[in-house]
């Protein structure tokens, strides 16, 4: 029992991986992010209501909002010494409403405070810090006009954002959607997802109020934004989604969630991602051909399928520390055997008295035990 939050420890489960060099584990939450030193794991619950952190002290809430659909996409500052989480505050998947990027400082100190970094009432999201933790890249609708096109921007001071002497510089410029950006852990490159290469004709501008697809993954130089290379795409004749790219810890590979292998046609029996606009499919990984000459990574054809199920796999996170590594201090919460899993009874603010997990955390609709 955590005396600070009155929430018992919650465990995670290892999952079989088809890739011999990549291990998998499941987190009962959304938008997981792991600190660069591998010691802390953060995520939000299925209601987008609270930010959770797992570390050597167990599992706890570090920030909680007053209602659902209010916070998502936590991301650690890449410099672990700064002990800062960045989050998006506001409604998800609604470009017409304000969405602000905030910092949660002193996470280990359990301050439960936040500091707003963006202003102007725009829709800002998906922050990612530079390797030294001093700058932030993010996407915004601030110059998108009535159609709310999304482009990437650079915040030169991650500590103050747009306040004080902080400034914001536009990195990309076009009538499309650039989003899901992440800064490489060891260099100048930024990976992001974009619709910039969708067909010029025969494609609807919107699909039931949402983007029509045709997403691809790109690499861009933070110091020279004119250098942009497409790495992985969904195809000219496929309105697919290759989204949420993340770098491997060594910066030599990229993982994405994509519908390259299709999605289930029977979603009613599957777990619910409450605020998802559409299923993303499975997790894939692509190895970069050259980390020095980015142009050699154009349209890489070979990739690895990491998950293979009909469940929706949302945003991935990648760490160099395995669940057996003592440096990954949150691994105390990992169950790696069937025997341990059988004895495990989840405990969270939404758990049923008989041990059933609520949909708030897992996305599953659970019926408590019943007897005839």
pLDDT under 50 segments (min length 5)?
1-10, 340-349, 352-357, 362-372
Relative strand content? 25-35%
Encode the helix/strand succession as letters: EEEEEEEEEEEEEEEEEEEEEEEHH
Cα-to-Cα separation, first versus last residue: 34 Å
Order the strands across the largest sheet as they lie in space.
3-4-5-6
Estimate percent helicity: under 10%
CATH topology: Neuraminidase
CATH superfamily: TolB, C-terminal domain
Rg of Cα set:
20 Å
What's the CATH class, please? Mainly Beta
The general outline is: globular
Sheet of most strands = 4 strands, antiparallel
Which secondary-structure class do the elements indicate?
Answer: mainly beta
> What's the tally of helices?
2
Descriptive notes:
The protein has one domain (12-362): Neuraminidase. The chain has helices at 338-343, 359-362, and strands at residues 12-15, 24-26, 30-34, 41-44, 50-55, 58-64, 71-76, 85-89, 100-104, 115-116, 124-129, 136-140, 151-155, 168-170, 178-183, 189-194, 216-221, 228-233, 242-247, 253-258, 282-287, 304-305, 334-335. The chain is globular. Residues 1-10, 340-349, 352-357 and 362-372 have low confidence and may be disordered. Helix content is 3%, strand content 30%. The chain is built from two helices and 23 strands. A hairpin with an 8-residue loop joins strand 7 and strand 8. It has a four-stranded antiparallel beta sheet, with no helix packed on it. A four-stranded antiparallel beta sheet has the order 7-8-9-10, with no helix packed on it. The chain has 372 residues and is an all-beta fold. InterPro entries: 6-blade_b-propeller_TolB-like (IPR011042), WD40 (IPR011659).
